[in-house]
Every structure is written in C-alpha cells, then in structure tokens.
Amino acid sequence: MDYQGAISILAAAVTAGTPIFYASLGEILCEKSGNLNLGVEGMMLVGAVCGFQAAVLTGNPWLGILAAMLAGGMLSLIHAFLTITLKASQVVSGLALTIFGTGLSSFIGKKLIGIPAPVKFSKMDVPVLSDIPLLGPILFHQDVLVYISYLFVIVVWIYLYHTNWGLKLKAVGENPAAADAAGIYVARIQYVHVFLGGLLAGMGGAYLSLAYAPSWLENMTAGRGWIAVALVIFALWDPARALLGAYIFGGLDILGYRVQALGITVSPFLMKMIPYLFTVGVLIFISAKKGKHHTAAPAGLGIAYHREDR
Amino acid sequence: MISLLKIEKREINNPYILTAIRMVGIFLAMVTGGIFLQFTGHEPLAVYRTMTEGVFGSAYGFNETIVKTIPLLLAALGISVAFRMKLWNIGAEGQIYVGAIAASGIALKFGYLPAYLLIPFMLLGGFAGGAVWALVPAVARAWWGTNETITTLMMNYIGILWTDYLVFGPWKDPNGFNFPITPEFSETAFLPAFGKTRVHMGIIIALLLAGILYVFIYHTILGYEIRVAGENSEAARYAGMKVTWNILLALFISGGIAGVAGMTEVAGITHRLQSGLSPGYGYSAIIIAWLSRLNPIAIVGVSFLFGGLLVGGYAVQTSGLPASTALMLQGLILFFVLGGEFFTRYRVICYQNKVAKREGDVHGLSRSN
C-alpha cells in the first residue's frame, strides 16, 4: 500500500470513528454521575432519523443536528426519570430505551428510506493546519462536525478535571451519599448528565445520517451505540482515550470496504464481524487485566441512590 | 401550609397486586401509544381494532400468533434462566441464529436419516449451537468478571453476520435464483405441523420446556440454589455453592434453550436457513422474561400476548403503519411497567407541614430527591 492509500484509510477511520466518539463522550458524562445508560443505540437511531427528517424539512443541516440532539436528550430523560426518580433498574431501563428507540426510529423513518440527504456536511480544509504533513490530510481534511468533536474533547476534559462542577460530578458518581451530605444536589446532577449523554448520542446518530452515510436506513447504527458503551470501559472513562479508541473502531469499521478495494476477496460479512469481535476481545482483555479498570469506574455506577439508605 | 413528599421503602409481594400493577402499566402504555398515533395522524382506536382483529379475527391470525409465540417463548425461557442469576444475557438473538445454523448444518448434511433420528439430532444441535454461543461471554464472565451485557450483545451481530456469510456464500442454494437461502431440507427434517396450518410441533417442545423449567426452578434443590445465588451471590458462596460453575451452567442452559428456538424456526417454518430468520425475537424475549418476573408459567402467557402484538403489527401494515409500531409499543410497555415497579417498592407520603416534625422526617423533608 502506498503513502496516499495509508493516509486515506486513516482519514476514513477518523470519519467513521466520529459518531462512535460522540456517543461515547456522552456516555462518559452519564456514567461519571453514576448512571449507566444502555439506551445509547436507541438514542443514536432516533437522533439519526430526527436529524435527517429535520434536514429534509428545513434544508438546514444545523437544524438537523439540533433536532437530533433534542430527540436524544428527550429519550434520555425517560431513562433519567425511571432510574433517578423512580429508582428503577438502570440495565432494564436502558434496554427498554434501545428497544423503544429502534421501533420509534423506524416508525418515523418509514417515509425517509431511499431519499438522498438534501443537505449534508461536506469535507473542508482547515487553513494552515491541513498543510501539516501526515496529520494535516488525516485530521484537518474533514467535515465541520469532526472539528467540533476535537473541541468537545478539550472542553469535556477541562470540565471533568479542572472545574468545580467536574469535581462535584465525580463526587456524585463515586459516593452519592457523601456528596448529598456535602450539600450537592445529587439527583439534579445526575439528571443533567444523563441528559448531556442523550444530547451527544443524538448528535452521533445525526453524524451518521447527515455526514457519514448521508441517508436514512433502518437500524443504520448497526451496534455502534453498543460499541460506544464498550468504548467507555476501554477508555477508562477518559475523553481523550475515548477519541483514540473511537478511531481504532472506526478503522476496523472501514477495513472491510478497503480490503475489498485492494482486490482481496474475503466475504464482506466476515469483514463486518471484525469490530464486534474486537469489542469482545478488548472487553475480555481489560477485565482480565483488572486493577486499573476497577479504579477507573465510578464506584456508584449502576446503583440507584436512595437517601434513606445512607 | 406546605405539603411535602416523602418516599418510604416498603415491599409488596402479593402476586395479585403485582400482576394488577403490571396490567395497569400495559394499559397506560397502550394509551400513550394511542396518543402518539393520534399525534402522527392515525386513528388509535382503529389501529388497535385492526391489531386485535388481526389476531383474533380469523383462524389464520390466531394460528400465526401461535407460530410467533413459539420462538418468543423458547427465547424468553432461555433468558429467564440467566436473569435468575442476575446474568444479563441479552444475546438470545444471536443464540437463535447460531442454533439455527447448527440445526441447518445437520439437516443439510444428514438429510438421509429418518425423522425419528434427524429431528432429535437437530434439536441437540440447536441447543449446542446456542449454548456454545453463550459460553464465550459466560467463560469471560466467570473467569475474569467481564461484563456480559455488552459481550452477549456483540455476539448477536457476529451470529447474524455468520448466518449471512453462510447463506450468501458456501451454503447458498445453487438453484435459489441468487436468494440468500440454503437449499430446502429433506422432508425428514421438517417438524410436523398441525393439519394444514403453520403451527408446528415446536409449540409442544416449548410448552414442555416451560413445564420442566417450572418444576426445576421451584421444586428441585439445584433450582433452589440458583434462586438463592441469584438473590445473593455472597450468601450462596457462604453456603458452599460454586458461583463460577453456576454462572457457566446458567448461561449454557440459557443460550441452549434460545438455540432451540432457532432450530424450531428452521425445522418448523422456513425449512431452510435464510437471512433475516428472526425479526428480533431475542430482544422481545428480554421484555417477556422480565414482565413475567422470570416465572416460566407466566412467560407462556406473556409470550402469547407478544406474539399477538407482532401479528397485530403486521396487520396494521395494510393501513400504512410500519410493523415497527409493535416494537415501539413493546418498549412503551416496558417503560410503564418499570415505572410501576416503583410503587411496589416505595410508598409516597404527602405530609402537611405540622406532621413534618415527626422524628426522623426532618432530613427527608429538606429537599426532595
């Protein structure tokens, strides 16, 4: 493979990884508050279809993104209400959200199948930066949503590690009872971060339907929401590692198409298995290593907080 | 006077009240679904009537509901075994597919065997296929504590892609006009059907399994152990139960039963392996198992209800609604029943200000959580 070929594969990996990254970043924020939301797949699907529908109606891709985020956010609030206020099982509620989202998205999207996106996010060079050898064409010859994702890594990283809010969030996720005793509004913080998770999952979905595909297909996320949840563990709840991990998954995602283009005849179905096999392998590897993984997970993850239990 | 809310723990175990709460949940889900349908320009009552008529309006509809009940019932029974141990096996969909692959492989290779040998062989194969598929996440969970929720789910995609690989590739019917299907099995591999309907012997297998599981869970020592281990793994460990072994066993059986659903589908309905064999039975089965509180007898009833929901979903397609309407309603039902659980575990007390001074309430009242 020549230099140009390698560059184009890496650039495509960044594009393919971006929707997974958005969803993963949202799930990190959600899980940092101690809430596990397995509804990412459902929220991404609804985000994808609502974003596409809004773009078709308004002709404005930004309104599409906005609609997708709101749709993902609304769905996440169902999960938040059930798990935070009604203290229902987070696992079951998240599964319900994915099943509901899958049904809802194909309900809304029935008339949208086969329509090409009227508008989409196209690639554009960033002046100066795109001229950097190697990195330029990989990282800075992308669409604007990819650039926004770079921004988000930095913003969320600062938020988590260098602000008072980030500290409060961590307290809630690690020990809600102690946080409550310290005067932090536990439920409010959890609601906000579950909602942020929904917004970002919706955005990840819209990236698929408005930039990556760009079109609407039933179940077009194809498990990316679940991979995003796995990626959070892989990334040890760290946004920068999530970005890197998302690109690895993105690379595996496109590998199938690229290998075919090189004239190697492997069944496309076998190639498509790779990201899922890799996810299983990585999860097993991480848990076999233990140690670091155990300290990285928020201690209160998955447990409903009931203040009378203190 | 300010009235304040306080949430207090309680536990309701009365099965009638629990069932009633679930019924109310299902009813509210249907109402919400109706509002949504109205909002999107459909006639909710007409849609529900079409759905009901689709199921009960004709012998065909009723038979089709039984046909859909079979895989749902088997998959839900399988899932319930794992859920009892608090193992989140959400991989039934993949286990169905791999069970179907194994059964199909046997049917295609040993088609010359007489039915009384071939059918049990395929059943065993279906069980083994699903069981092995669940064993990968099971081993990882038992040895290294790998979260089985995501691994079982990932195995779904791999199983479905493997099926596609086979029916588009090495197993494709050379005379199938390029459709993604294998050649039809020999007739000795067909599960006998009842009369001229599509209802096949799978329903007997499924009901039998439900009975066996019921007896096993509620009337044997090992079943008791599994129930205890599921409630409290620490207590189980103290009592000398081998938790690691139980994890492997529970997921093995769980996947195996789901695999049987794959076998009954190919042997009873399609008579060949084909792409898109299961339209998400494995996912609906999660809801069924949970709604039934993992009780095998309840699972039979709820599976029939969900089979009806699927057939009703197909019926409304004629009026321009997508079949996914049924999936949406399933999700809504789960939301409402999940929300209803709250009232079985907590009571909400509304205080007037003067009573609030009662001992211990002061903290609870400062903020509502």
UniProtKB/TrEMBL annotation, chain A:
Its main location: membrane. It is found in: Cell membrane. It is a multi-pass membrane protein. It holds the Pfam family BPD_transp_2. The keyword NAD does not apply. GO terms for cellular component: plasma membrane. Keywords: Cell membrane, Membrane, Transmembrane, Transmembrane helix. GO terms for molecular function: transmembrane transporter activity. The chain crosses the membrane at residues 6-24, 36-56, 62-82, 144-162, 191-213, 225-249, 269-288. The keyword Cell membrane applies. This is Branched-chain amino acid transport system / permease component. It comes from Thermotalea metallivorans.
From TrEMBL, chain B:
This is ABC transporter permease. The keyword Cell membrane applies. It is found in: Cell membrane. GO terms for molecular function: transmembrane transporter activity. The chain crosses the membrane at residues 20-39, 59-83, 95-112, 118-140, 152-171, 199-222, 243-261, 273-291, 298-317, 323-344. It is a multi-pass membrane protein. It comes from the Bacteria. PANTHER family: ABC TRANSPORTER, PERMEASE PROTEIN, GUANOSINE ABC TRANSPORTER PERMEASE PROTEIN NUPP. CDD domains: TM_PBP1_transp_TpRbsC_like (cd06580). The keyword Transcription regulation does not apply. Keywords: Cell membrane, Membrane, Transmembrane, Transmembrane helix. GO terms for cellular component: plasma membrane. Pfam families: BPD_transp_2. Its main location: membrane.
